[in-house]
């Protein structure tokens, strides 16, 4: 018998516990997944899945699936990239790193399809078309009938009856001169210039309605507006410089995704509040305002 240190194959293999620990260590150093990053950003922005879905027009089940890193419900890579960009902008994230992460995990972007080669014009000879004698005969018959009808009903002595150009009017006599200066012709009078609307005219509002004017002043912001019955008046993003006006007989409910960049007029008066950039505000205004309701916790 030989005596030595003979290790069995089972002893040389790493234990299951060791491999599990290695996997946990590898996962701990990895960056958060696309779905995790979007979910954390949404929670940090104080938004629910319903609000994100209403803002982005991405259906609620797809939002839930993307936050779980399930992209099978998107309908393909092109739609998945579009949903990732839309959701990232709604929760104030840069979409470029997330799309790059998606491409890296799904084989990268497809190569652009090369343009089809141009055909040689000399090889393609159009077929000679036979003349359409039937159409020519019909056109000739119509021309003859039209000429006969014109001669029968519109003929006569050209000296007694001359055709007058359609749309022309009989000349009007020139106005008599009453003074030293000739009367001004209507065509020479310049049209009155229309005054451009000022900020006060835009902010002005009738007293019997609640009027709210929103302007994306220093950046873009998504907003949602509803009337007193809960009917949705607007749900979307205002780009910088764009304005929206909402009216109702009782009240207007607002949700501002980035209240710090929005300029707000209520019932003809500007609302000046110290909103911070990126701050989400839920507001309600009535005919008795501009005293603003206390904002709800976002």
From TrEMBL:
Q: Any signal peptide, and if so, which residues?
A: none
Q: Which UniProt keywords apply?
A: Membrane, Transmembrane, Transmembrane helix
Q: Where is this region: Disordered?
A: 1-31, 156-199, 277-298
List the InterPro entries hit by this protein, alphabetically.
Bact_Cytoskel_RodZ, Lambda_DNA-bd_dom_sf, RodZ-like_C
Show the stretches that span the lipid bilayer: 133-153
Q: Does the keyword Membrane apply?
A: yes
Which Gene3D superfamilies does the entry mention? lambda repressor-like DNA-binding domains
Composition bias (Basic and acidic residues) maps to 10-30
Report domain Cytoskeleton protein RodZ-like C-terminal positions.
218-284
Name by which UniProt lists this protein: Membrane protein
């Amino acid at each position: 018998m030989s005596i030595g240190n003979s290790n069995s194959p089972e002893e040389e293999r790493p234990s299951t516990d060791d491999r599990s620990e290695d996997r946990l260590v590898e996962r701990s150093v990895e960056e958060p997944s696309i779905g995790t990053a979007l979910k954390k950003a949404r929670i940090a922005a104080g938004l629910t899945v319903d609000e994100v879905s209403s803002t982005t027009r991405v259906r609620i089940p797809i939002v839930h699936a993307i936050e779980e890193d399930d992209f099978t419900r998107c309908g393909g890579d092109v739609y998945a990239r579009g949903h990732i960009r839309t959701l990232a902008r709604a929760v104030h994230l840069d979409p470029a790193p997330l799309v790059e992460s998606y491409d890296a995990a799904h084989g990268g972007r497809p190569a652009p399809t090369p343009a089809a080669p141009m055909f040689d014009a000399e090889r393609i000879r159009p077929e000679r078309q036979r003349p359409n004698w039937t159409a020519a005969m019909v056109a000739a018959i119509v021309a003859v009938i039209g000429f006969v009808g014109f001669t029968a009903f519109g003929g006569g002595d050209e000296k007694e009856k001359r055709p007058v150009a359609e749309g022309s009017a009989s000349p009007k006599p020139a106005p008599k001169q009453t003074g030293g200066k000739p009367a001004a012709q209507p065509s020479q009078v310049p049209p009155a210039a229309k005054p451009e609307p000022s900020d006060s005219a835009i902010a002005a509002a009738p007293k019997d309605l609640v009027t709210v004017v929103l302007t994306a002043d220093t950046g873009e912001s998504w907003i949602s507006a509803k009337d007193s019955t809960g009917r949705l008046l607007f749900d979307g993003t205002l780009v910088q410089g764009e304005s929206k006006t909402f009216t109702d007989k009782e009240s207007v409910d607002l949700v501002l995704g980035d209240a710090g960049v929005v300029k707000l007029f209520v019932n003809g008066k500007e609302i000046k509040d110290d909103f911070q950039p990126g701050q989400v505000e839920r507001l309600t205004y009535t005919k008795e305002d501009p005293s603003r309701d206390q904002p709800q916790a976002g």
